[in-house]
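Table S2 (continued). Query chain:
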Amino acid sequence: MFWNNVPKDGHIAIFDRTWYGRVMVERIEGFCTRAEWQRAYQEINEMEKQFVDHGAIVLKFWLQIDKDEQERRFKERMETPEKQWKITDEDWRNREKWDEYEKAVDEMLVRTSTMAAPWIIVEGNNKYYARVKVLQTVVDAMEERLAKYPNA
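Corresponding output:
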């Protein structure tokens, strides 16, 4: 159950994709109805607002790479023995749906970026830059919270 993974007060959790599967993979693969994935936007926004209202810092990162960079990384993984486990036929199959995913991502970002929990777009073609941007954003958010509530 998802709620078992929500961190207790004062703790940190990192989720990968999480509740966004409904408006991405499930939508594109037809695992849910249009009404279900459309309803999910409001459900996501309400849940994240509850987290923030309870005192959580919600940081949502979208790591964006372009189609050429994705192909380069896929090929590199295939050619590097210690990275081959990271690439599957499913990855290549999903890549064929790039345009569908791009449309779903755009809508997801627009419909679920809120004042309480905005998306942070991370330019991901350069891995070093992306990592630094994510880490700096986390540090900045924590410093801001500590400055606002020094005894928390």
